[in-house]
Design a protein that fits this description.
CATH topology of the largest domain: Tetrahydropterin Synthase, Chain A
Number of domains: 4
Strand content: 15-25%
Distance between the termini: 131 Å
Largest sheet: 5 strands, antiparallel
Shape: rod-shaped
Number of helices: 7
CATH class of the largest domain: Alpha Beta
Structural class: alpha+beta
Helix content: 25-40%
Number of strands: 12
Strand order of the largest sheet: 5-4-7-2-11
Order of helices and strands: EEEEEEHEEEEHEHHEHHH
């Protein structure tokens, strides 16, 4: 925003036309007597004279430079405007709002994992928040030589250092490489502290760093899905029960593939139950026969005598017979 001609009051302001800008420097060779400063919500205005901070204005409003600005500046309190004596100073507008930025790893990170000699390549995605932290450091490191600075430049710097940080924090505490999402918050908090320490050297604060997801290779995803399915199902019988319930819920009483599947599975289950029941009946009959033989009910002779269990002559089991099958001895 330039200055108007001499017959109009000059305006010093920042309209934030470009989204994501952290600071913008107003430069002019002439701040005239009738100039006005406009500070909008979410902005601070810093007056710089010869590269040094003269005053910081944090309250939004419309200020007259001569009567409301100059009297509060450190070394310019006695500055007197004249016809040919405009104020030569810079005004740095700072975005005080916290800015949310999306990030993603540029390249896959190869993590050491059991059974994978070449490592497991993963990617990560999420967001981070940043804002201006220290005005003095910002002016010394950036604003002194830059006209403006954006969150895209912060993001570029962070992405450059992100891969080694991720590898370091993922590798701590023996984390499960196949279930990193469980530790995403701890990993993100650790990276946030490290990034904040690094970016504070430029006067910028990283207030939050979130890992929304880890992305595994397609082969690993399939293995995880298979393992999860096996853990949920447990055995074939439970699988059939779940499948039938699911098919009934989808197919109802109508026809179609779901109903056919249910009918087939129910028929198989009923057939298996019938076979099991027949086998059980046969086993029960055998057990009853053995019990009757042991009790002598089947081996009782017509004469009313009791058949011994073993032949008194040779000791061979009689099995309820009247004569010994080994020596021919009459048992009754």
């Amino acid at each position: 925003m330039g200055f108007f001609s001499k017959q109009f009051a000059s305006v010093i302001e920042w309209n934030e036309s470009k989204e994501g800008t952290l600071f913008w420097k107003f430069q002019s060779d002439e701040i005239k007597k009738d100039s006005r400063l406009i500070v909008r919500p979410g902005q601070d205005a810093i007056f710089l004279y010869n590269g040094k901070v003269e005053g910081i204005f944090t309250e939004e409003g419309n200020y007259e430079v001569e009567s409301q600005i100059i009297p509060f500046l450190t070394t310019l309190k006695s500055f007197k405007f004249g016809f040919n004596t405009p104020l030569r100073a810079e005004v740095l507008f700072v975005n005080t709002k916290e800015v949310l930025v999306k990030w993603g790893t540029k390249n896959a990170i190869n993590l050491q994992a059991p059974g994978l000699p070449g490592g497991m390549p993963i990617r990560a995605f999420g967001t981070f928040s940043c804002k201006i932290g220290d005005y003095n450091v910002l002016i010394e490191k950036l604003a002194g030589i830059r006209q403006t600075y954006t969150v895209d430049e912060v993001k570029e710097r962070i992405i450059t250092d992100l891969n080694p940080m991720l590898m370091s924090w993922i590798g701590k505490e023996g984390r499960d490489m196949f279930n990193l999402q469980m530790d995403a918050k701890k990993i993100g908090d650790g990276i946030c502290d490290e990034l904040n320490s690094e970016m504070s050297e430029l006067g910028i604060a990283i207030t939050n760093f979130t890992i929304e997801s880890f992305s595994y290779p397609e082969e690993i995803k399939k293995m995880q899905e298979k393992a999860a399915a096996q853990a949920m199902i447990g055995d074939v019988n439970k699988y059939q029960q779940i499948a039938m319930a699911d098919a009934l819920g989808k197919g109802g009483s109508g026809s179609g593939m779901a109903t056919d599947m249910v009918g087939l599975q129910m028929g198989m289950a009923m057939g298996q139950q019938m076979v099991n029941q027949m086998n059980m009946n046969q086993m029960n009959m055998n057990q009853m026969s053995q019990q009757m033989n042991v009790g002598g009910q089947m081996g009782q002779p017509a004469g009313g005598g009791v058949v011994p269990k073993f032949c008194p002559n040779c000791g061979t089991p009689t099995n309820g017979a009247n004569f010994c099958g080994n020596c021919g001895n009459k048992l009754v």
